[in-house]
Amino acid sequence: MRAGTPLPERRIDAVNPDHIRIVALVLRDSNPIHFDLGAVARAGLGDREVNQGGTTMAYVLDLLAEWAGTRSALRRIDCSFRANVFAGDDVLVGGEVTAVTEDGSGLLVDCDVWAEVDGRRVIAGSATLALE
């Protein structure tokens, strides 16, 4: 493994509006853009429910955990939210190794990570993972 190694891409097909509403209930997120199409329209956001930013970031976290083999490998993540993801969107998640260093007990792997919809980055960031 070295800088430039791509992470395997992960695709989320057609974000499900029912999942968006369920996450809003679980999180007690009362923002109506997640479940009220009228509120979405009044906010000027179109005609589909808006996925929670944390859910979109979770797609990135799932990719990292799958690639590393465990969620406990994650040491740091820093992401910026650049655009909304809407019900029905296909989300492509990926990344690339930017640096690999040894720390005595294994490797510390720095990566650039991202999520995109139709080629447009909706999340961009970086992460560090500890691999044995």
Automatic annotation (TrEMBL):
Protein name per UniProt: MaoC-like domain-containing protein
UniProt source species: Nocardia huaxiensis
SUPFAM superfamilies attached to this UniProt entry: Thioesterase/thiol ester dehydrase-isomerase
Taxonomic placement: Bacteria, Bacillati, Actinomycetota, Actinomycetes, Mycobacteriales
Cited InterPro entries: HotDog_dom_sf, MaoC-like_dom
Family designation: Belongs to the enoyl-CoA hydratase/isomerase family.
Domain MaoC-like as annotated: residue spans: 7-99
